[in-house]
Structure formats: structure tokens, C-alpha cells
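Hey, can you fold this one?
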Amino acid sequence: HGVTSAPSGWQNAVEPVITFVRDEVAKVNLGSRYERYMPYLLTVFFFILINNIFGLVPGAANVTGNIAFTIVMGIISFFVILISTNKKYWSHIFNPHVPWGVKPILVPVEILGVFTKPFALIVRLFANMVAGHIIILSFISLIFIFGGMSKIAGWAFSPVSILFTVFIYFIEILVAFIQAFIFTNLTAVFIGQAFEGSEHDVDKHDDGI
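Sure. Predicted structure:
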């Protein structure tokens, strides 16, 4: 039985996000192979986004601000990238098309590049999610610092500190979405690079991407 009604409620809210990830992340970077990676990309996007949002709830744990969490996410993406590689990808790394005198220098750099990709994912997510929380805590701490110097100074600075805290908090909500998108998009970019030299490149041109 086919669908006879338009999506509503939660489905109506989530569907544009799924469409956005499909059209702006998966298709752009993965070409005709995007469908096999959609489940993983969507899982990564929503998993990071939900944890980012929960991390903004007062008293809740900032999970994505924990380096152990981002390391695990980076390692998982690393293995997905490795599984997506082909012979031409590794040939480019171990036998790049450069003069023989340059190869001893370029090959180690290419090998290091394989590991810096997940490292970039790990550090970017961790640093951005921790930074906002540190700024918020700093503004709140300033109230007590000024209060310790003088009660008048503490009360006078409190409204300023609270205003900046609320402002940064709303910025953090935006950052929660942006970081989920960036992690997912970079993962798709790195997977797409693993297709290098394969028919994927032809698919991208055929699709007009």
C-alpha cells in the first residue's frame, strides 16, 4: 500500500533535513554511490546533532565536548573511509605521479594525510563544542570574580555577564547544527576522495555536479 497522505508532525520536520543531507552532502560528494552511504551519514548527523543539543541543557553532560566521544566518532569514520578506498587510491599514495627524487618526501606526507583526515574530524568537533561552554563558564565566573572584589561591582557586572551568556548560548545552538553538518560533510568528502580515479569521477560529471 502506497503513502496516501502528506507527512506531518515529526516526520514533516525531519524530512527536509534528510533531503538536505542527501542533496547537499551525499550526492555532491559521492555521486551515484550516495545511497549506500546515506544510512551512515544520516546516523552521524543526527547522533552528533542530538548530543550537541543535549549538551546545551543546563546540568546535562557535554558529550560531544568529550575527546573520547569525538575520537570514537573519528575512528568509525576512518574505517568507513578505508573500506571505501580502491587500488588507484593506494597507488596514488604509494606511487604518486611525481619525479622519483620527490617520491621519498611525498609518500610519507601522503601516508600521514590518511591519518590526519580523521584527526581533523576529531579535533574540530571537540574544540568547537568545548569552546562555547568555556566562554559561557567564563562570563558566569566573572560575576563571582567581580563580586569577590566588591559586591557593587558584582551586582553591576551581573546583567552584562548574563546578556553575553544568553547571546553565546544562542550562538551555541547554531553551532550545534553547524558542527553536525561539518562533521558529516567532511566525512562524505573524505569518502569521496577514497573513490579517486574510479568511475565515481565520471558519475559526478554525468550528474552535472
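DSSP finds seven helices and no strands in the chain. Let me know if you want another pass with a different chain boundary.
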